[in-house]
């Protein structure tokens, strides 16, 4: 039996793929596919869409407005917000539920929008960093806290931290520094500016308490 296998494997004219070739192909092919979908996600999505993978018009409540967008079945909320609705304040860092930079509030609860399918939020209220300030342009107390303390270095992670803080502080208006740090542990900062960020968020908490007393 093994002689037959070897003869097939060594025959350049044979169309039969050896087991070793098959395994090599799966490994290389699998890596190539997963890398391509990560590195070239936009063209991949466009190509899928062109093949008609079920894009349909959805209406979702974002920042108090009913917004309409053509959304694919597998499309994430982060993708829709940034590329369909132009709300680029929501950042995409890891795109795999690890860094928190895409955090938005859904019905007041923080979520990684890179890991939420858009079609699941049709009957819910989405709040992004663009919707935090009041209509007269007054910043949210947590946003003001960032300005007061000059928090953040490059600020890529800032929208996610602010959205997570707003949700945490609503439930815990008077946290200690370590409680707030724990509450924000789902958000990462590539600049590792955690001390300054926490100081800014603590100031935001103070601003929120002051605003609620006014
Ligand atoms: S981009 Fe969503 S968690 Fe990192
Ligand atoms: S300040 Fe740069 S990633 Fe956080």
Descriptive overview:
The protein is an alpha+beta fold and 214 residues long. Helices cover 46% and strands 12% of the residues. The chain contains 8 helices and 5 strands; from the N terminus they run αααββαβββαααα. The N and C termini lie far apart (86 Å). The site of one FE2/S2 (inorganic) cluster (FES) has 10 residues, from loops. One FE2/S2 (inorganic) cluster is lined by residues 152-157, 189-191, 193.
Question: Which terms would index this structure?
Answer:
single chain; 214 residues; alpha+beta; five-stranded mixed sheet; disordered N terminus; binds FE2/S2 (inorganic) cluster
Q: How would you summarize what this structure contains?
A:
This protein is of the alpha+beta class. The chain is built from eight helices and five strands; from the N terminus they run H-H-H-E-E-H-E-E-E-H-H-H-H.
Radius of gyration, CA atoms, in whole angstroms: 24 Å
Helix content: 40-55%
Distance between the termini: 86 Å
| Tally of strands | 5
Low-confidence stretches: 1-51
Give the structural class.
alpha+beta
Mean pLDDT: 82
Determine the number of helices (DSSP H or I, runs of at least 4 residues): 8
- Hetero groups: FE2/S2 (inorganic) cluster
Shape type:
globular
SSE pattern: HHHEEHEEEHHHH
